[in-house]
């Protein structure tokens, strides 16, 4: 076994798991690699759904989640857990994803043990350290410690170059979420949730909604819910499916405004396969999520982003996504524009997805082999923009 590259992949939340799953599967295929998976379970139940879907059995599970956990609590538990694990496993490289607290803490543990770090989905920036909070700083700090930077797009690569990262350490790969979607979306999909099976996706304009980010807590969520209520009341052909985050800070506000409203379905977060297929059947998406901004364009679905800034400007530039913030009037106006202006809808739904072509995981693994001298050439870069 001594000659194999030991790759320790670490993730803890559902969004990370979705994006790391195809990469784990690709690592498992390669005879030059010993693939080891550790989950922190920063999110427990939602993480487990993804592991089951992609048939991944973690080698290690830190199982850190507890109720009302703080960012400091998550960080210290992950650092301590990973420190012990790294000392016993002795990986050649640790792979982390994106911008979660697990990502930052795992990177710091690797750095303290002088283990190489590969950062998947590197280089996204809003340039405002509190938006999104704490993700912007998690991602930036991870980037400062990483040795290999797997940027999904050319513009994320440019962000890293401006921060002084050497070009030889940056690999433009596309986003692994597109690899995942090729395995989850089905044309004649039957939902596990019967409420969804009974929605008339043919004759109703179904809007899928998610909104839960910390920077929108309070007034932001209030405004979003008021706008959603008006959209449904004013437009009889619209049905709303809001996947409501379990956090009471969000859930209580959403239920106050939208519970028992006609043509509004409030559902708990769905598993990955259900979510991807709901997106595929919906008319449009309204969200403050980062991941949905990448996923929906792959399915030709316009996205209104309920945030003032995004670390994913490529989709805004390509026209598949529009930033609308949380102002009641702006949200309402843009939603109705998409509902009734066919040209506007068409321009957003037929734009090219700048995020991936389904080969990101392969490029990442090829580049790890290149980095450890098991392959002569870097992988060809993804050209998406």
Automatic annotation (TrEMBL):
UniProt-listed SUPFAM superfamilies: UDP-Glycosyltransferase/glycogen phosphorylase (SSF53756)
Domain (UDP-N-acetylglucosamine 2-epimerase): residue spans on this chain: 25-368
InterPro entries: UDP_GlcNAc_Epimerase_2_dom, WecB-like
Keywords: Isomerase
The protein's Enzyme Commission number: 5.1.3.14
Uppermost EC category: isomerase
Record keyword Isomerase present: yes
Keyword Nucleotide-binding on entry: no
Domain of life per record: Bacteria
Family per similarity comment: Belongs to the UDP-N-acetylglucosamine 2-epimerase family.
Protein name: UDP-N-acetylglucosamine 2-epimerase (non-hydrolyzing)
Gene: mnaA
């Amino acid at each position: 076994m001594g000659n194999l590259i030991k790759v320790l992949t670490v993730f803890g939340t559902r969004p990370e798991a979705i994006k790391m799953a195809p990469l784990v599967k690709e690592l498992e295929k390669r005879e030059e690699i010993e693939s080891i998976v550790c989950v922190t379970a920063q999110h427990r139940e939602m993480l487990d759904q993804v592991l089951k879907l992609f048939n991944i059995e973690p080698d290690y599970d830190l199982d850190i989640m507890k109720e009302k956990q703080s960012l400091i609590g998550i960080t210290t538990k992950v650092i301590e857990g990973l420190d012990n694990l790294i000392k016993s496993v002795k990986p050649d490289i640790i792979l982390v994803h994106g911008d979660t607290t697990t990502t930052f803490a795992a990177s710091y543990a690797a750095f303290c043990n002088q283990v190489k770090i590969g950062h998947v989905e590197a280089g996204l920036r809003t340039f405002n350290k509190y938006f999104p909070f704490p993700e912007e700083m998690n991602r930036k700090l991870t980037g400062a410690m990483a040795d290999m930077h797997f940027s999904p797009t050319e513009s994320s690569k440019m962000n890293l170059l401006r921060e002084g990262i050497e070009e030889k350490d940056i690999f433009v790969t596309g986003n692994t979420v597109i690899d995942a979607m090729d395995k989850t979306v089905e044309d004649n999909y039957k939902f596990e949730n019967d409420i969804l099976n009974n929605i008339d996706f043919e004759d109703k304009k179904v809007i899928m909604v998610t909104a839960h980010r910390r920077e929108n807590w309070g007034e932001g969520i209030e405004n979003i819910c008021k706008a959603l209520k008006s959209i449904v009341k004013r437009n009889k052909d619209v049905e709303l499916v809001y996947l409501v985050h379990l956090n009471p800070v969000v859930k209580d506000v959403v239920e106050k405004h939208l519970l028992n409203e006609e043509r509004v379905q409030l559902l708990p977060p769905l598993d990955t396969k259900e979510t991807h297929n709901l997106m595929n059947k919906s008319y449009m998406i309204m969200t403050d999520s980062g991941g949905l901004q990448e996923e929906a364009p792959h399915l030709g679905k316009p996205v209104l982003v309920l945030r003032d800034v995004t670390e994913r400007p490529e989709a805004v530039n390509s026209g598949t996504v529009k930033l609308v913030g949380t102002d009641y009037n702006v949200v309402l106006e843009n939603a109705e524009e998409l509902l009734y202006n066919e040209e506007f809808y068409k321009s957003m739904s037929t734009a090219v997805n700048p995020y991936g072509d389904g080969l990101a995981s392969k490029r990442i693994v090829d580049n790890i082999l290149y980095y450890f001298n098991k392959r002569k050439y870097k992988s060809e870069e993804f050209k998406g923009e």
